[in-house]
Design a protein that fits this description.
alpha/beta; Spore Coat Polysaccharide Biosynthesis Protein SpsA, Chain A; 2 domains; eight-stranded mixed β-sheet; 10 helices; binds uridine-5'-diphosphate; binds magnesium ion
């Protein structure tokens, strides 16, 4: 029987994990694979660790890793991929927004030859209006500015074949945007529609500010177009300045008009300084990104972990066994 690891990042999810496990376990029981469930406790400050330990004590399929502090969702997913040696990895959220009932569809697509199966939210109207609009605008912008295709409405609910896991693990960039990385690695891709439930308990860890920071980091790591903005803005402004210069010379020399000129000077100076500061800011953002990459710090630190030994073969293997 093939082995499948389910990677579940959890940051302050003590209120969700029991319900998550209760919903997941019966689905796993019915499927003919050897499963492990790896919770990645991303430096939680509530009882998440204790709940993970309690679940592992009850269910031999459950393992966990605890980070030394909060390293973020993308780092937690990466740690799960690093820890797994299964034939496929499924990543899903701990808040039951990604329904375990969709897992058979993911596995069927994998059996059908897909190496990267992406969950795509079918009923986006359930999201708040702000989240829906901002997410649509973000994906449109990203796909315009970047050559790497990034699926919209497709959060981190995925199945990765071993080959994709190995490929993704070779990309150790700090400015981590896995949805972009999945587009970048390629392979045979398929998608599965699922309807996203509301969060069972607790609250979303992505506030407006964190979403913006995440979107910026995604843009920086998958597009260099904003940098090119400096070149184009420079060209356009120089052309305009040249035309304006001709006009000013003509006025002074040909028509002998003496200009007071204060307003045009003030407007020009402030316009140009604005463009210069903006450009400097863009360059600075990329430089910061380069600094982070050059330092090459580890993406996360594991303080403590329990990985269950390979699930034993079931005495009555299902029809899939080879
Ligand atoms: N998460 C994490 N580290 C963080 C933030 C979030 O591991 O720093 C986990 C969180 O526990 C959840 C998943 O990432 O399992 C998605 O987070 P959340 O549900 O808050 O995001 P949303 O669904 O609101 O976009
Ligand atoms: Mg969520």
């Amino acid at each position: 029987m093939r082995r499948v690891d389910i990677v579940v990042p959890a940051f302050n999810e003590e209120a969700c994990l029991e319900a998550f496990h209760a919903a997941l376990a019966p689905v796993l029981d019915r499927l003919p694979y050897r499963f492990r469930v790896l919770f990645v406790d991303d430096g939680s400050r509530d009882g998440t660790r204790e709940v993970c330990r309690a679940l592992a004590a009850r269910d031999p399929r459950v393992g966990w890793l605890s980070f030394s502090r909060n390293f973020g969702h993308q780092a937690a997913l990466t740690a799960g991929l690093d820890a797994s040696d299964a034939d496929a990895v499924i990543t899903m959220d701990a808040d039951l927004q990604h329904p375990p009932s969709a897992l058979p569809d993911f596995l069927a697509a994998w059996e059908g030859g897909a190496e990267l199966v992406s969950g795509v939210r079918a009923d986006t109207h359930r999201l708040g209006l702000l989240k829906r609009l901002s997410s649509r605008a973000f994906y449109r912008l990203l796909n315009t500015l970047s050559k790497v295709p990034v699926l919209a409405d497709s959060p981190d609910f995925r199945l990765l074949d071993r080959r994709v896991v190995d490929a993704v693990r070779r990309l150790r960039e700090q400015g981590r945007f896995l949805r972009g990385i999945y587009g970048w690695v390629g392979f045979r891709q398929a998608s599965v529609a699922y309807s996203q439930a509301d969060r069972t308990a607790g609250e979303s860890k992505y506030g407006l500010f964190r979403m913006l920071a995440f979107a910026l980091s995604a843009l920086l790591s998958f597009s260099r177009t904003p940098l090119r903005f400096a070149t184009w803005a420079g060209l356009v402004v120089s052309a305009l300045a040249f035309i304006y210069g001709l006009y000013a010379i003509a006025q002074a020399v040909v028509f002998q008009v003496a200009l007071p000129g204060w307003t045009s000077l003030a407007v020009l100076v402030s316009f140009l300084s604005g463009i210069q500061l903006l450009t400097l800011g863009v360059v600075g953002e990329y430089l910061g990104q380069v600094l982070d990459e050059v330092k090459a710090r580890p993406l996360y630190l594991v303080a403590d972990q329990h990985l269950p030994p390979l699930a034993p073969e079931h005495p009555d293997p299902g029809p899939e066994s080879a």
